[in-house]
Amino acid sequence: MSHWSPQACQDEPDGLILFDGVCVFCSRWVRLVMRLDREQRFRFLPIQSPRGRALAARFGIDPDAPQTNAVIVDGRIWFKSDAALTVLGAFPETAPLALLKAAPRGLRDPVYDLIARNRYRIFGRTDQCMAPDPADRGRFLS
Q1: Model pTM greater than 0.70?
Q2: Averaged confidence pLDDT in the chain
Q3: Cβ count within 10 A of residue 123
């Protein structure tokens, strides 16, 4: 089993997305999810927060140099392309993209890794975690 294979995670809330809060690309991802998530199923946890650092370390993600985002759905934690496609599969507008999970992870994750390795250089990085709008603040954990 790969280090990034889905794993059991029964003790964390369903719909929790762990993300790199200083990454501009990752913050845009969170904003996209918030826009699509009319039922507000997902909550967000920046990896730079104390709870985010602890969760990352628990699952082998370096909180100082994260190689993946993660999402908890149905008692399992998903990583890399599995995480993104699991989230996208939850929304009618993007559900067809979840069909890409049928492709082997060995083909999908190298593309994910390429973007992840270059995300700061291409999209930028901020000094602080993204600040949610007041209406969305309750969806962010720390």
Answers
A1: yes
A2: 93
A3: 14
